[in-house]
Amino acid sequence: MTTADFAHLFGGARVMAILRGLPVAETVRLAERAWDLGIEVVEVPVATADAVPALRAAVEAGAARGRIVGAGTVLDDETVAAAADAGAAFTVAPGLDLAVADAAAARGLPHLPGVATPTEAQAALRHGLTWLKAFPAISLGPAWFKAIAGPFPQLRFVATGGLDATNAAAFLDAGVRVVAVGSALTDPEQLDHLAKLTTPHP
């Protein structure tokens, strides 16, 4: 299995919106707001079954706009199946579980596992996973990404955990491909500032 599909799915996206634990209507509203501002990729975590309707609604709203929606906090085979049935374009997990990655692959879904150490990064790479989620990014810090690029230049990282409009740019400057922002998105000013990061600086 390979996660090369993320290069196609994300394209030039630099910001991903994580819409966690929100009612269905609010999930769709914030997803549409993000898309309007140029934040093209949305993740809806489905840690519990009652979050699946919000994922499904976001997927349907995204399809109408040609935008993709992934499922986050995918921890087991059952959640992989629920995400696939809801139409998710990819799955995301906070940690590295190769069985979950394989279950997602079997469903045709690229999987973005979480890592926080070189050992986990190497294990993921050995499994053919080249796009990884670094979590919690705020604890790792931008310097971690510069350091990890030395032994693992082929890896591409999505930074998640504690990011907002005040610190996301530092992670992009450190080589992160995509910054994923969650709770900060409930602040309208955050969305506006994050939208400015969607276009690389000249």
Features:
TIM Barrel; globular; 202 residues; seven-stranded parallel β-sheet; alpha/beta
Principal-axis shape = globular
* Classification by helices and strands: alpha/beta
What is the architecture at the second tier of CATH?
A: Alpha-Beta Barrel
Mean pLDDT, to the nearest integer, reads 93
Nearest-angstrom radius of gyration? Answer: 15 Å
User: Spans with pLDDT under 50 lasting ≥5 residues?
Assistant: none
Instruction: Report the β-strand fraction as a percent range.
Output: 15-25%
Oligomeric description of these chains: single chain
Strand order of the largest sheet: 3-2-1-9-8-7-6
Specify the helix fraction band: 40-55%
Number of E-type strands: 9
CATH superfamily: Aldolase class I
Mind telling me the CATH class? Alpha Beta
Q: Which fold name fills CATH's third level, the topology?
A: TIM Barrel
How many domains?
Answer: 1
Question: Number of helix segments?
Answer: 10
Summarize the structure.
It contains 10 helices and 9 strands. By secondary structure, the chain is of the alpha/beta class. The strands form 2 sheets. Strands 3-2-1-9-8-7-6 form a 7-stranded parallel beta sheet. It has a two-stranded parallel sheet with strand order 4-5.
Provide structural commentary:
The protein has 202 residues and is of the alpha/beta class. It has one domain: Aldolase class I (TIM Barrel, Alpha-Beta Barrel). It is built from ten helices and nine strands. The chain has helices at residues 5-10, 24-36, 52-65, 77-86, 98-106, 118-126, 137-140, 142-148, 168-173, 188-195; strands spanning 15-18, 41-45, 68-72, 91-92, 111-112, 114-115, 131-134, 156-160, 178-181. It has a seven-stranded parallel sheet with strand order 3-2-1-9-8-7-6. Strands 4-5 form a two-stranded parallel sheet. Strand 6, helix 6 and strand 7 form a beta-alpha-beta unit.
